[in-house]
């Protein structure tokens, strides 16, 4: 059974703890300010892998502390990617494995693949314009989400006449080379992401709707199993097929 230390005990941390045993994992320690404890040798001594669902401002500091104890890490927190070079150096210097992702949901990562394949097909049609939107609960702190940015990057890589993603309100006509992805925050919506291909004749829509956060928690646990004996820095969607053995 994989032994896990949870870094952060908010909604995701609690959900991971709830489903851990059913997924061959044991939570051996939990680190969170509300518990008045910290990342140290005592709290990490029994764990195989740490799972971090905290906040962007704490990720780098958490990784530096965890790396000292040679523990591998799953990073579920987003919006810290400007530090990616430094994080890679930390992983290599300390000979540990780190896996991160904008979204650990198994369904969302399948959606990434669907969007990738669809945009490759739609790139050959000049009749359709592409745009996207997302809806999240009112407690979500980032807008656009890391998931929205990853979907946008997939589209920009495959739709050759789109080279700029616009996430903000536009008080002008959108340019042909721009791709607009809008974000809505409100209520208790776990997450909706939609990509639309629109022509004068019809609309083709790809849509992923999360019913809850359990898919994220399950993906994080699968990532923890996968990273246990590895070294280096990995992005979840790039090794998703290997993790699921598909």
Give an account of the 3D structure:
The protein is α/β, with parallel strands linked by helices and 246 residues long. The protein folds into 2 domains: 2-104 and 214-244, 3-Layer(aba) Sandwich (Rossmann fold), CATH 3.40.50.720; 106-210, Dihydrodipicolinate Reductase, domain 2 (2-Layer Sandwich), CATH 3.30.360. The chain has 8 helices and 11 strands. It has helices at residues 11-20, 41-44, 56-67, 84-94, 106-122, 146-158, 214-227, 240-244; strands at 2-7, 25-31, 49-52, 72-75, 97-100, 129-136, 164-166, 178-185, 191-198, 203-210, 232-235.
Which helices and strands appear, and what pairs or packs with what?
Blueprint: E1 2-7, H1 11-20, E2 25-31, H2 41-44, E3 49-52, H3 56-67, E4 72-75, H4 84-94, E5 97-100, H5 106-122, E6 129-136, H6 146-158, E7 164-166, E8 178-185, E9 191-198, E10 203-210, H7 214-227, E11 232-235, H8 240-244
Helix pairs in contact: 1-7, 3-4, 5-6
Summarize the entry for a quick read:
By secondary structure, this protein is of the alpha/beta class.
